[in-house]
Structure formats: structure tokens, C-alpha cells
Write a structure and sequence with these properties.
The protein contains eight helices and nine strands. The protein has helices at 3-6, 17-33, 45-58, 92-105, 114-124, 157-164, 199-205, 240-255, and strands at residues 67-71, 77-81, 109-110, 138-141, 170-176, 181-185, 192-196, 219-226, 261-268.
Length: 273
């Protein structure tokens, strides 16, 4: 305290303008010269977790779900989701710790293509955790039926991801009714006709049997998108294969002692403009 301040009456304290300016200048200099906090990893883990939670609150909206590749200086690239917070790119340790807080708290993780499924799996593989895929609790696959025959094209990337997420609790899969029909050429060459897939065909084509490996699953939503109302007015149920698949899932999960709620959600496709 300055000599001027010591001579003031009790209860009154006044710092001259010059001293305020000196303090401000000193603080500004320190901030500019050392803008980063380099001892974050020396903080207790509990305190770091609190910081991660506050960081999530500050950056809680992520709109872009496309992916990009960042070179990490090694012989291979690391895949990061572009929507991911910047903190995931700081270090392996911070990325792994933050992922344990961020992904379980996410309302859902939406994977829009088989390529995204592969990239997301590659990203999770970079986490320095014993079981990195356990951070995923809820997956939404809105274009699940947009795949080629899994048996002849290297497998279903969606289901490969699902199988590795051993702590997955909820799974939402979307099918268009048109994807639940099969094409074949009639014997008399009468042209191509569409017929509903049989249960085994649905299970094999989409590799739905792989869901039985998810021992933590509690809920599966099968969303079926119907064509416009006028095209379904003939009494034919285009989602019957999906109903059968849902019943099969419930039965098979029950056989292995796992109670999973499987529901069918119907939605009518919006008319094309």
C-alpha cells in the first residue's frame, strides 16, 4: 500500500490514478506475453472434469456434421469431426478425457453416411482409453438403408460401428419402405417386379443380427418412411418386413436374457416439390 493510502482516515481507501494505470499496464503485459495456461494437466482430474463440463456449456451447439482429416505429424492421418470442439485437438490425453465427458452427455450422435461411420470409428480409435467406443451411448442412423449389399461390398460400416459401441444404450435406424422390397426378373421375362423382402433377407442384407452383440442396449427404434398416402391406400403394408425384424429382435434379445424395447415409428415421406 502506498504512503498516500496509509494516511487516509479509517474506512477510506483511494488508489491514485497513476497506480491504477501501472497495475493495468502490468496486467495487460502479462496477459499478452502469456495468454495460455500451460499447467492444465497438473490440475486434479476432478477439476479438469468440471472445466470440461463448463466448456461443453459454452460450446453446446455444433451444426456441421461433415468430417475432415487433420495431419498429426505421424505416418497416418487422424479423423476429426468438424463439429467437434477445438479442445479435442489439443493432445491425446485431453482428447480422451474430454470425450469421456462430452459423448455420454450428447443427446445423440447422428451418423449420416457409411463413410461417416468409418471416419467416426477411426476418430474413436485415437482415444487413449481401454475401451474408447464405450463413450458412445446413443446412435442415430438416418440413412441406414442407403447401402449396397453387405455380403458383397465389404460389410455394413454402420453395423460395424454399432458392434464396437459396447456401451450403446439406444439405437435409432431409419428405413425407406422402398428399401424393404427386392427386385428380380420374373421367369417369363415379364419385367422387373418389386416384392417385399423376407425376414431372413432383411436380417442378412442389413446385417441386423449384429445388434445382438450390443449387450447394453435398452431401446431400438426402427423408423419406417412410407411413400405418399395415395400410394399406400391399397391395403398393402410396405413396412411389414420391418415389423417382422422388430419382433425377431425382441425375441432374440429376450432369449439371451436382455430386455430391449423395440418400437416401430412410421412417418410419411414429404411430397417432392
Amino acid at each position: 500500500m502506498s504512503e498516500y493510502a496509509q494516511n487516509l482516515p479509517a474506512g477510506e481507501l483511494h488508489v491514485p490514478t497513476t497506480e491504477i494505470q501501472e497495475l493495468t499496464d502490468a496486467f495487460t503485459t502479462i496477459t499478452l506475453l502469456n495468454p495460455k495456461f500451460h499447467n492444465f494437466l497438473n490440475l486434479p482430474r476432478e477439476l479438469r472434469n468440471l472445466i470440461y463440463e463448463e466448456y461443453i456449456k459454452a460450446e453446446h451447439l455444433f451444426y456441421d456434421w461433415s468430417w475432415l482429416t487433420l495431419e498429426n505429424g505421424s505416418e497416418r492421418s487422424v479423423f476429426f469431426p468438424r463439429w467437434a470442439p477445438n479442445i479435442l485437438g489439443t493432445s491425446h490425453q485431453v482428447r480422451s478425457e474430454f470425450a469421456q465427458t462430452f459423448f455420454p452427455r450428447a443427446g445423440y450422435i447422428e451418423i449420416e453416411s457409411s463413410h461417416e461411420a468409418q471416419f467416426f470409428a477411426a476418430f474413436l480409435d485415437t482415444l487413449k482409453l481401454d475401451k474408447p467406443f464405450e463413450v458412445v451411448r446413443l446412435l442415430v442412423l438416418p440413412h441406414f438403408d442407403n447401402i449396397k449389399d453387405s455380403s458383397t461390398h465389404g460389410g455394413n460400416a454402420y453395423m460395424q460401428l454399432v458392434m464396437r459401441c459396447t456401451a450403446l444404450q439406444k439405437l435409432r435406424i431409419t428405413f425407406h419402405a422402398s428399401a424393404l422390397r427386392r427386385r428380380y426378373l420374373a421367369k417369363r421375362q415379364l419385367g422387373r417386379c418389386r416384392f417385399a423382402m423376407m425376414l431372413d433377407e432383411v436380417l442378412d442384407f442389413f446385417q441386423l443380427r449384429a445388434t445382438l452383440y450390443c449387450t447394453a442396449l435398452r431401446c431400438i427404434e426402427l423408423e419406417g418412411i412410407l411413400p405418399s398416402e395415395e400410394r399406400t391406400s391399397d391395403g398393402f403394408d410396405p413396412l411389414q418386413p420391418l415389423r417382422q425384424a422388430g419382433s425377431w429382435m425382441s425375441s432374440e434379445f429376450r432369449k439371451q436374457g436382455q430386455e430391449v424395447k423395440v418400437t416401430l415409428v412410421k412417418r410419411v415421406a414429404l411430397p417432392r416439390v
